[in-house]
């Protein structure tokens, strides 16, 4: 009667109960992503085939959906936190004149650009397709064709033909991608002539949320202009040795993938001998 109950399908403590208090809960894992369905469980001494010791899977028919998955913009909850597309939605702007430039007064959030929307908000007249940051400026007509906030003077030369002269604030009149109000490109230049480089592509002014790494190495960041390309600025953590703790310690996308875990084992000798499960 003084014996400790161990999980072995026997009544070790002579109380007529078998394995009471020592059975392990396992969760059905049909998609074999190491996370099981909380609604389908079983109690056992060792892990049954098709079950996982870790629950929390909100779609056990899709191995790409589990608490360790990366959230992507597709109107689904990949990481099982009850939120859909969190941190993955992009901002688009209405483009009623179809010139490829949107109006900042008409934003919307979506995974992909809805019809009639674009990813920029650079248009100063969304009803006229000839007026946008790439519009050809006509000097002295009183119309701001290129959205720089003023009409082009007929008394100065515009070397690169971008509709801006040095008098208008063009900080590089030999480069048509550089002028006041231009869209900032990830090119190491000050395209909009505001004295800063690539600022609209880096936090805090710009950059959509993103993540790098898996498991315990996963880190949150934002998309930024790095080395001439748009990349996630998050630095993943360092992988650790995989142990049986319900976490992806070695950051390979799989949890507790240790050989022999959950199998019966014995420790001690004589009266001190005890049975348990490998972990």
Would you write up a description of this structure?
It is a single chain. By secondary structure, the protein is mostly beta strands. Helices cover 0% and strands 18% of the residues. It has no helices and 11 strands. The protein has strands at residues 24-28, 37-44, 51-52, 90-94, 107-110, 117-118, 209-212, 219-226, 229-232, 264-267, 274-277. Strands 2-1-3 form a 3-stranded antiparallel β-sheet, with no helix packed on it. Strand 1 and strand 2 (37-44) form a beta hairpin. The protein is elongated, with a radius of gyration of 31 Å. The two termini are 27 Å apart.
Number of helices: 0
Rg from Cα: 31 Å
* C-alpha end-to-end distance: 27 Å
Main sheet, how many strands, which sense, barrel?
3 strands, antiparallel
What letter string, H or E per element, gives the SSE order?
EEEEEEEEEEE
3D shape? elongated
Low-confidence stretches: none
Strand order of the largest sheet: 2-1-3
The residue-averaged pLDDT reads 87
The amount of helix comes to: under 10%
Strand content: 15-25%
| Oligomer class | single chain
How many beta-strand elements? 11
Helix-strand category: mainly beta
Helix-strand layout with pairing:
Layout (H helix, E strand, L loop, with lengths): L23 E5 L8 E8 L6 E2 L37 E5 L12 E4 L6 E2 L90 E4 L6 E8 L2 E4 L31 E4 L6 E4 L2
Features:
three-stranded antiparallel sheet, 279 residues, 11 strands, mainly beta
Q: How would you summarize what this structure contains?
A:
The protein is mainly beta and 279 residues long. The chain contains no helices and eleven strands.
């Amino acid at each position: 009667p003084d014996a400790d109950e161990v999980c072995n399908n026997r009544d070790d403590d002579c109380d007529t109960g078998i394995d009471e208090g020592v059975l392990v809960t396992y969760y059905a894992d049909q998609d074999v992503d190491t996370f099981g369905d909380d609604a389908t469980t079983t109690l056992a001494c060792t892990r049954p085939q098709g079950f996982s010791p870790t629950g929390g899977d909100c779609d056990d028919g899709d191995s790409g959906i589990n608490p360790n998955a990366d959230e992507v913009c597709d109107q689904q909850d990949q990481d099982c936190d009850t939120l859909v597309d969190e941190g993955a939605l992009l901002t688009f702007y209405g483009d009623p004149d179809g010139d490829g430039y949107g109006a900042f007064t008409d934003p919307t959030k979506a995974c992909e650009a809805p019809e009639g929307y674009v990813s920029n908000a650079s248009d100063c007249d969304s009803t006229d397709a000839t007026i946008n940051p790439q519009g050809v400026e006509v000097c002295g007509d009183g119309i701001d064709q290129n959205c720089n906030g003023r009409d082009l003077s007929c008394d100065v030369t515009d070397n690169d033909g971008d509709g801006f002269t040095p008098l208008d604030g063009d900080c590089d009149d030999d480069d048509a991608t550089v002028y006041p109000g231009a869209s900032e490109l990830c090119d190491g230049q000050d395209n909009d002539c505001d004295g800063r480089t690539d600022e609209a592509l880096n936090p805090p002014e710009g950059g959509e949320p993103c993540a790098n790494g898996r498991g315990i190495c996963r880190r949150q960041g934002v998309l930024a202009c790095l080395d001439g390309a748009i990349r996630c600025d998050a630095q993943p953590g360092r992988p650790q040795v995989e142990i049986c703790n319900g976490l992806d310690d070695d950051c390979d996308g799989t949890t507790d993938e240790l050989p022999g875990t959950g199998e019966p084992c014995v420790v001690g000798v004589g009266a001190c001998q005890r049975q348990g499960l490998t972990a």
